[in-house]
Structure formats: structure tokens, C-alpha cells
Amino acid sequence: MKKGILFLILFFLVVCKGTGQILQGYVKTLEEKPVSQAHVILLNSDLKVVAHAVSGDDGFFLITSVKKGVYKLNISCVGFEVLQQNILIEENQGDLGVFRMQEGITLDEVTVIKHKKSLTTKVDRIIYDVERDSMAKNSVAMQILEKLPFVDIDLKTKQLQVMGGTNFVITINGKKNLFLSEANQYVARLLQGDKMKQVELITSPQGQYSDKTAVINIVTKGSLPDGIVGNIMIDFGKDFIKPNLGVTSKIGKLVYNVNYQPGYTYYSELTDKTKVINYRDDTIHRTESELITWSKDDSHELQLNASYDFSDNDLLTFTGQYTYYREREFQEGKTTIWNKKDNKVQIYSFENRNINREERWNGKINYQKSFRNKEGRLFTATYGVENNQGKKQYGQELTGMLGIEDSRGIFKNSLRLTEHTTGVDFTNPINEKHSYFLTAKLVARQYRSDEELNYDQYVPAFRASYSFSTVKMSLRAEVSFEKTINDMQFSKKSKKVRKNFFNVTPSASAIFLLSRKSTFSILYSVPSFRPDIYYLNPFVDRSDPSHWKVGNPDLEPEISQLLSMSYRFYTEKTSLAFSAKYKHSGNAIYPYDYTNETGALVTTYRNMNRSEMLSFNMNFEYKVPDKLQIWCTGEAKYTYYSITRSNFPLWNFKAAAGVYVTLFKKATLGIIGNIRPMSTSVQHTKFEYLTTATLRGEYTFTSRLSFLVDMDKFLWKHINVEHVKETDSFYYHKDEQWRGRWVSFTLVYNFGRLCDRVKKSGRGVKNEDRVKEI
């Protein structure tokens, strides 16, 4: 009786046939069975019925005379839970797709209609159910990913960011794939949401991605479509032009990406003034220098990435890169030296012309084999070989007056690196609550150069991790054993140096699900930093006559204690993240400065007695897609260094805030402010900063073509710090000029097309094309 009355009321409420379009769709169960006699009702914004249909035996229904717009859809049937969602109907849409209903609830039992949420929070991840989003079918993957909290698209680079950074990886069905990786995100502008089932934002990655901030895992309904897509971006301004061309294609199991980026930059004159007072030296007591620099750079970069899936358990990847860089730098300088009695000891002026050329080749092949004998248990063996070659040519013409001799020289060097990596991983979920992860790896590196450098490094490592998880909590304990063997000889005249480091690195973490939209996590670890060739090499870089750089082969590894805590909270439109970190090290590696006998400033590295770091970070965002985005980030950081008998405490801050407003459908205006520290040496005792303000505007001509303008305002940077070290105590003052304004333009064009290769070829549907439940 109730059903009859309900149907009679609906009959009189349905709007009679008028102008509009005809729509069709299907109603099915979660098991893909058709649902017959399901009542499909469309309501407008005033909740008035504008259309009604009943599904047939095959689940098919037809709705006539519907105009474009946003509607509320209600589907009800005896024995099923009521389905209610918002849908967008566009012109000439025709097909509404498939709607799936859940069995178990009858109409007579329904008293409250519950709106299903698209976002679900678990202990270590946030899950976005794409199938529950009525708008997702006609959205591209990039638009869907942006609906995740803590995930944004940078308006300038058009790349995804997670919590304001790019330290994340994108996987498809748990496997990394070039076709939708962080390096080829523009492909996501063409991939439609109807190929996606759900998206997982893993906020506490483990295993091979434990060093990442997050992992975005996309679960698809079937195999990804074939096709070829590309991206052209031209970034240019008054003093530079940097085009970028990228092409990505998928042909069956083969995926490849080619990217080429040339560039030219001209830097106008900058003037740096430096004053150094050395209290421990009576002869070189005070030094004042003025340096004027201008330069021209040009570069070329070519990248090739490819992967081939032999099967679900076999993956072969290749990465190749070629880089050419040339810098032509011109300097005019003047230096005056006084003794303690304020008498001029020496005055000299110079003109310096430097030409730096650098070429690098990099190639890496990696093969991965996986074995599975039960659901969730995975054993993976990998082998990779990498070859890097780099050539550097540094030419200098130095013309001096009053104390400096003219000199001319060309220095050439090539560095070759061959690296072999072998590893095995084993993941075993014992049951729903317990799991463990084991990994063993051996890395062998060989460095060779024209400067008679012989450097061999071997790194065997083993790591074991255990996890315990419930609905509200996740606990993890891990320990790593790593040994580093360094055999170094920097020239035939020098002795062979062997430095061996062995470290045991334990860590433990806990994650708590506080509510449906908030989590709290705490981590303790003992990280270690082992210096490599770039820190140990005693070669002196004299490309800047007034500022030399040199390594230190006597460095020891840095062992630290780290404690961090984080809190994350989100709603439909806002996301908020807090974190606090404390780090202590008894022998931290940091750069420090001193003046040598010629009066030049030298930067090198050493192990400090003690260092401490305390930082607080905040990330907030409010966004309404395609309308408004407000965000701000900030960090307050306290550092404390102890060098023998001297201490250096320092507070510094960095912050950024911005707002993007979509003025109308195709235009966006943004304002961004930024302040960041500029300290380069451990001995700095005052906060150095650089402040910028950016006005940004973008106009989107079509879904493929957009144009962006950036206007950056730089403020002057002033440095006034005191330097103290064991055998030297001196005052260092520097005025450094920055360009006042920088205007740049960016033109972006996306091209290409994805296609369903099943329909394209006309062949039958294979098992690999079918929807796979994950």
C-alpha cells in the first residue's frame, strides 16, 4: 500500500515532457547484476521532481526532456539501499553510465537517507572513492587528485604537490608507472575518471617508499588506455627563455617518456661589498672588497625514461639523461687590506673572465622480479646498473693590477661513476593486524677521473620492520644495519685513504586515528649521514678568486637522535597539518668559513662538537575547486651549534602565504608572499632573510592551452654576522644586491590523445582488460 501511494505521488509530481535532451543509463548491483523496477528520480535545486523513470529487466532506464545543470539523483528499489547523489548533466551528454545499488535494505525500512561520503580516513591513509563521485566520470585524473586533502596543483609548474612539497611518488595499483608518475603528471589531464576506482593518499609510507612524504596510489578499473600525449611549456622573460617539450606514450606494455629542455639566461650586473675584520691577525687585520659580476648561461637537457611490463611480476625500467651547461661569467673586483695600525698593506684590482662548460651523461637500467604465493605476501628481487659520466672544462683569464699577476689557464676534468645495486625485499602480512618487511641491499660504486682520482665505495645494508595495526592505531618498529667502505686515493702522490663506517639505525613510530578526519603520529629514529666524495674531496675550487671551496677527507659520519610528532586534520574544504621535530647530534657535519693567508674566504666542512635543532611547521589550506584557494605555510626553527669553546644559537623563520581567485571561468589571479632564511654557514649568528612578493595571473584559453604571468618583487638582503672559530675570531659584513623586479611569462600547451585499445583494434576483450577487484 505504501509503495502504491509513493508511486502515485511521484506520478503527479513528474514534469510532463518538454524541451531538453534524452538520457539513458543502467542500474546494477555491486556484483554487476541488473536491477529491475528501480525508480530513478531527478530533483532540481528546489528539490522538485523534474524527471522520473523505471528500469527494465536489464537495468536499463531512459529519461527524456532534461536540460543541462546540476541535479540530485534518487534511485530506490525494494530490497536495496536508497542511492542518492548529485550529478552534473551537460549538453549532448546522452549516457549517464552505470549506477550500483547495495542490497539488504527495503523501502519500508528506510526512514533516513544517508549521504555516502567520498572520503574515508584510515590510520595510515585517506581514501577517495571515485565511483561515489557523480562528477568524476567526466573529470580528468588531475582534477580528481586535487580533491584529496593536502594535495594541490602548483599554478606555475602545473605539477602536483603533497603538503607543499614534491617528495612523493605516484603508483597505479601499487606499482610505479611512468604513464602517471610524478615526472609525467600532464598525462593526468587527459585520463578520464571513468577509468579510476579509487585514489589512496598514503600519509605514512613503508617499505621501499619509507623515505617519501606520501604515496598516491590510483586503483583503476582495468588496464590504462594506449595513446600518446605531450606537453609544451615556454618560460620566458626579459633576461631568459626556457622552452620545455615532453612526450609520453603507452603502447601495450611499453611506456616511454622523452623530455627536452634548452635554456638561455643573462644576469645583469650585481655588486657585492664585503668587509672582514680579523682580530687574531695584525698583518691582514681588515679587508674590504667590492665585486661586480655579470654572466650569460645556456644549457640543454634531454631525458628518456621507459618501462616494460613483461608480466604482473616482471618489470624492466630504463632512465637516460644528457645535460650540457655553459656559463660565461665576468667579474671586476677591487680589494684593499689594512694592518692593525690602520695602514694599507696591499691594494689590488682585477678583471676575471670565467668560462665553465659541463657535460653529463647518465644511464640506468633496473630489472625487478616479484614472486607471490598468497595474497599480500610478496618477494621481490632487483638488480640495477648505473653509469654516469661528466666532463668539466673551466677556463679563466685573470688580469690584475697593483699586486696581482696576469694569469690564463684551462682546467679539464672528467668524472666517471659506475654503480651496481642488488637487493631483495620480502613483505609478509601475517594476518590483518601483524606484518613484517625485510630488505637486503648491496651497492658498489666506482669513481674515476682525469685528476687521478680512484674512489671505490661499497655499502651493504639490511633492514627489518614489524607492524601492528588496528582500526584506530598502527605501530611500527624498524632497525637498519649499514656498513660503508670507502677506499680513496686523490692522486698518485697522495696516500690511499680507507674510511669505514658502520651504523645501526633503529626507529619506531605510532599512528593514532583520533577521529574520522584527524590523525596523530610520533616517530623516533637514529638517522646517520655518511659523507661521500663531494664532502671528502680535498680539491680546491678557485673559480671565484675571493671565495674558495674545498672538501675535508677527515670527516666522520654524523649520528643523530630524531624525535618528530605530527597532527593532521581535514574537512571537505580545509586541511591543516602541524609537526614538531627535535634533532640532536654529537658530531654534525656543517660548512664553516675562514680567511686564508691571501685574504680569500674559504668554505669547507668539519664535524662540530654538538648541534641541536628544534622546529615547528604548519600547513593550512582552504579551497573551493575552480573558485578559491587560500594557503599558508610556516616554520620556526632553532639551531644550536658548539664548535670547541664557541657556541652559536640562532632562531630563524620562513613563511609563505597566498590566495588564488578564479575571477571568471577562464582567469585566475594570485598573490603570494614569501620569506626564507639565507644562512650558508654554521657560524652565522643572526637571521638572514630574503623576502619576495609575487603577483600571478593565468588565463586558460582552452583545456589544452593556458598563459601565465609572474611578477616577482625582490627586496635587498643585508648580512651582518659574526664568525668565530677555534683559531680565528673575525667580524664579517656583506651587502649583497638583488634584482628589484623580475617578470616572467609561461605558455603551456597540452596535446595528444588516449584511446581504448580494445575498441581501437576491434579485437575481443581479453582477461587483462577486465575490471580487477583489488
UniProtKB/TrEMBL annotation:
Q: Does the keyword Kinase apply?
A: no
Organism domain of life = Bacteria
The Outer membrane protein beta-barrel domain is annotated at 421-749
* Segments traversing the membrane: none
Q: Sorted alphabetically, which keywords does the UniProt record give?
A: Receptor
Report whether Acetylation shows up as a keyword of the record. Answer: no
Pfam family membership, one? OMP_b-brl_3
This chain belongs to the protein called TonB-dependent receptor
